[in-house]
């Protein structure tokens, strides 16, 4: 039977050249409850945390569920189809990120965090090895390294950008013991995009490899891992489906097969072996050696469907649309008194930043701003330190002594004074009108034109309207 037979049963079809205005996501325009029994159209400006599913993703998942069966383990037609579709998904993802089809493989995992932990487990690092991460990382690209090798942080500059001089110096100083440079493709706090291909070149020249955390970058900009023969190639990347309009529990680690052909997989069991006897184990080859247990084929279908849509729009068009909205948002925010933007406020360049903007409002705690935006404007944003404590504390310029005071409050269960910022983050389906609604609500907050009836919960640090009753949530969804 030829492989193409399966494609008759589950095909990915989008119109050639989808345009941004055709893009629809699940729950777009949903009416949600706000203050005083009123309702508002929900505006999601929290895409850096998770994006809603594309309608196309939802449709493909629904279609696939009728064909779903066990992957790699069944002889039935539906098992064969599920296995074929999952394997085809690897190739599609390789193509999407410009991986080296000879050298690289795609290992499906739950999310970016799991992908980075897997690489940390599989690189066979020792305490004498040096891993260079940066101060602007999400904790998921910092903590997994700390227990595996001597982990050093590249500094950031006042405007939140990476200190490239410090990077070069640290690479130089640790040449010989430096195994890996690991850097985010884009900050989840400021949207700043470090020059990853230049950094790759520096790392390779020092005999090290590079991992790029693409959790933020992948949904918004084209990634080209490149051939492994190029000094500017990316050895490993990690990404999450739930930030790419495919929230069905799949992420991926993509990189050199060679690394995963060595040693023992970090998780062992079904699917990871060729043969097992009572006292011997012969591991199978990557990627399957590193995907223990039954895989999440539904998540892979969802991710594939999203990649089809993103490819058919073209990542350049995605970048242009989102940059236009980012420039508009920055311009409007810069005009508002009392708003401080953290990170670069400069004109938007496609290559320098994503549509992720962190800011504060003078005199109003970040958690309260976020709550007012939600309960009075129907706008979803995030506040706090965004799982990037070292970076946010640095951006806020909090002294080590004050950090200690905050730590003691938190350890005593009081988060009401936690430092932090408010973050808006833009996705492909957002519009200029969304930004207008957001900035209009922000203007009201600045001028004090809101219901001042919010109470802070010291345990969580969240602000809520004093009459908020969680039973309201159950009226909207329960399983
Ligand atoms: C830059 C960055 N890296 C890693 C992660 C972790 O992603 P996940 O929660 O999908 O594992 C995030 C999530 O916000 C992120 O923004």
What would your notes on this structure say?
The chain is of the alpha/beta class and 479 residues long. The chain folds into 2 domains: 28-45 and 315-474, Aspartate Aminotransferase, domain 1 (Alpha-Beta Complex), CATH 3.90.1150; 60-312, Type I PLP-dependent aspartate aminotransferase-like (Major domain) (Aspartate Aminotransferase, domain 2, 3-Layer(aba) Sandwich). 34% of the residues lie in helices and 17% in strands. The protein has 15 helices and 19 strands. It has a 7-stranded mixed sheet with strand order 4-10-9-8-7-5-6, with helices on both faces. The chain has a 4-stranded antiparallel sheet with strand order 13-14-17-16, with helices on both faces. Strands 1-2 form a two-stranded antiparallel sheet. Helix 2 (55-65) runs antiparallel to helix 9 (297-313). The longest helix is centred in the last third of the chain and has 21 residues, at 315-335. The two termini are 42 Å apart. The relative contact order is 0.15. Bound molecules: pyridoxal-5'-phosphate (PLP). Pyridoxal-5'-phosphate binds next to helix 4.
């Amino acid at each position: 039977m030829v492989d193409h037979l399966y494609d008759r049963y589950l095909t990915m079809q989008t119109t050639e050249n989808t345009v941004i205005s055709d893009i629809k996501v699940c729950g777009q325009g949903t009416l949600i409850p706000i203050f005083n029994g009123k309702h508002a159209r929900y505006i999601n400006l929290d895409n850096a945390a998770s994006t809603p599913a594309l309608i196309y993703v939802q449709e493909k998942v629904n279609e696939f569920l009728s064909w779903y069966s066990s992957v790699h383990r069944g002889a039935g037609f539906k098992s064969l189809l599920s296995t074929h579709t999952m394997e085809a998904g690897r190739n599609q993802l390789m193509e999407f990120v410009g991986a080296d089809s000879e050298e690289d493989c795609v290992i499906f995992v739950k999310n970016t965090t799991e992908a980075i932990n897997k690489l940390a487990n599989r690189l066979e690092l020792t305490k004498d090895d040096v891993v260079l991460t940066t101060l602007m990382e999400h904790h998921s690209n910092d903590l997994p390294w700390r227990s595996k090798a001597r982990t050093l942080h590249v500094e950031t500059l006042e405007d939140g950008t990476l200190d490239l001089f410090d990077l070069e110096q640290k690479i130089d100083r640790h040449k010989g013991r430096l195994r890996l440079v690991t850097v985010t493709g884009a900050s989840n706090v400021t949207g700043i995009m470090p020059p990853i291909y230049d950094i790759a070149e520096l790392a390779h020249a020092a005999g090290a490899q590079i991992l790029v955390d693409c959790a933020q970058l992948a949904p918004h900009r084209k990634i080209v891992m490149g051939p492994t023969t190029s000094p500017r190639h990316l050895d490993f990347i990690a990404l999450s489906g739930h930030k790419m309009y495919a929230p069905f529990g799949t992420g991926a680690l993509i990189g050199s097969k060679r690394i995963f052909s060595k040693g023992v997989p970090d998780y062992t069991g079904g699917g990871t072996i060729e043969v097992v006897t009572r006292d011997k184990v012969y591991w199978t080859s990557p990627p399957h050696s590193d995907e223990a247990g039954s895989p999440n084929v539904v998540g892979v279908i969802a991710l594939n469907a999203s990649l089809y849509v993103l490819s058919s729009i073209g990542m350049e068009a995605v970048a242009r649309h989102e940059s236009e909205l980012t420039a508009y948002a920055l311009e409007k925010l810069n005009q508002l008194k009392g708003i401080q933007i953290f990170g670069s406020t400069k004109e938007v360049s496609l290559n320098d930043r994503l549509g992720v903007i962190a800011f504060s409002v003078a005199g109003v705690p970040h958690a309260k701003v976020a709550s007012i935006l939600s309960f009075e404007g129907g706008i979803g944003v995030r506040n706090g330190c965004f799982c990037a404590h070292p970076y946010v504390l640095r951006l806020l310029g909090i002294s080590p002594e004050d950090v200690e005071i905050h730590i003691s409050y938190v350890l005593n269960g009081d988060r009401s004074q936690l430092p932090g910022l408010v973050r808006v983050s833009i996705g492909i389906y957002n519009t200029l009108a969304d930004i207008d609604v957001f900035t209009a609500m922000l203007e009201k907050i600045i001028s004090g034109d809101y219901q001042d009836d919010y109470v802070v919960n010291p345990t969580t640090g969240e602000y809520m309207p004093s009459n908020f009753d969680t039973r309201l949530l159950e009226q909207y969804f329960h399983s």
